[in-house]
Amino acid sequence: MELDLSPKLARKVYGGNGGSYYAWSPSELPMLREGNIGAAKLALEKNGFALPRYSDSAKVAYVLQGTGVAGIVLPESEEKVLAIKKGDAIALPFGVVTWWYNKEDTELVVLFMGDTSKAHKSGEFTDFFLTGTNGIFTGFTTEFVSRAWDLDENIVKALVGKQPGNGIVQLHGNFKMPEPKKEHREGMALNCEEAPLDVDIKKGGRVVVLNTNNLPLVGEVGLGADLVRLDGSAMCSPGFSCDSALQVTYIIRGSGRLQVVGVDGHRVLETTVKAGNLLIVPRFFVVSKIAAPDGLEWFSIITTPNPIFTHLAGRTSVWKALSPQVLQAAFDVDANTEKLFRSKRNSDAIFFPPPN
């Protein structure tokens, strides 16, 4: 039975006045389970506070919208308080405790994508909350918590039972959260919209690649990522990950056409993608996209910290490396046709502007 590769939207899992948490389900997007990938979104309203939690999965967080504050505690380390904004990518290794807060009118939206190979449920994140009605310590007896924290049982009951919220709460407008520190961003976050471009093609597109060079912490997460912005009606070269990595793509803005081809030249997906869609390209399958006139922007994670891609068009493609005789024999064409084919797409571009 063939897997359903069609793009899907996230569904609301929980939420309230402070905001909502959304996730993609393996039952609707089977490639999540097949590839051991999880994906979710956190959307915080003004004064929304995502309670401290840790996860069973290493992740990359990407800020899709708004500004806010994130608290991050790496194992056996002090809390880092980061100012975050649209375009920020943050690597979150195993064991990290995080909280998220939005003090602005604009909704803060954060995308999470990561590896669930060691998770409780393949294809899904499980968060463990430190406080709230479903907090870890609601499961311990008061005696155990009292001894662990060296506090009177009445104080323990207040600490554990006072918070009526679950996962996300809304704080009073005059409540003062910790102020972010500029130095805390160093090595923890990279703004992909401001980072140096790895690819910049006029009327084609731009790419920023997230790897161990510009954000070393992704090495601990075991994932790479990229932000791709394709200009109106431009094309992204057909290509595939040649190091057996999966590519998980979230469409941030715009729309476009997408085709994926797999084994024996079988086109396994032909669809139109739009903002909010999530899709996964299987290992070694070839994918290509053509943006609509309004352009197309996406953020992807790749299941290796330093991904390598092979493109099947352009000067750096395998076609240019193969000898003329091999191409003539492989395509079963004459020398003139081979020369015409080889003469095209002689730039390093992986993005092609629309035809004149």
Overview of the molecule:
This protein is mostly beta strands. Helices cover 13% and strands 42% of the residues. The chain contains 7 helices and 23 strands. The strands form 3 sheets. Strands 14, 15, 16, 17, 18, 19, 20, 21, 22 and 23 form a 10-stranded antiparallel beta sheet that branches. Strands 1-2-3-10-5-8-13 form a 7-stranded antiparallel beta sheet. Strands 4, 6, 7, 9, 11 and 12 form a 6-stranded antiparallel beta sheet that branches. β6 (67-73) and β7 (80-85) form a beta hairpin. The longest helix has 9 residues, at 153-161. The two termini are 42 Å apart. The mean pLDDT is 93.
Entry keywords:
356 residues, mainly beta, 10-stranded antiparallel β-sheet, 7-stranded antiparallel β-sheet, 7 helices, 23 strands
How do the helices and strands line up, and which of them pair or pack?
Blueprint: E1 11-16, E2 19-23, H1 31-35, E3 37-44, E4 48-55, E5 58-65, E6 67-73, E7 80-85, E8 88-92, E9 97-102, E10 108-115, E11 127-129, H2 142-149, H3 153-161, E12 168-170, E13 189-191, E14 199-201, E15 205-210, H4 218-221, E16 224-230, E17 235-241, E18 247-261, E19 267-274, E20 278-281, E21 286-302, E22 309-311, H5 318-321, H6 324-331, H7 335-343, E23 351-352
Antiparallel strand pairs: 1-2, 2-3, 3-10, 4-9, 4-11, 4-12, 5-8, 5-10, 6-7, 6-9, 8-13, 14-15, 15-16, 16-21, 17-21, 17-22, 17-23, 18-19, 18-20, 18-21
Helix pairs in contact: 2-3, 6-7
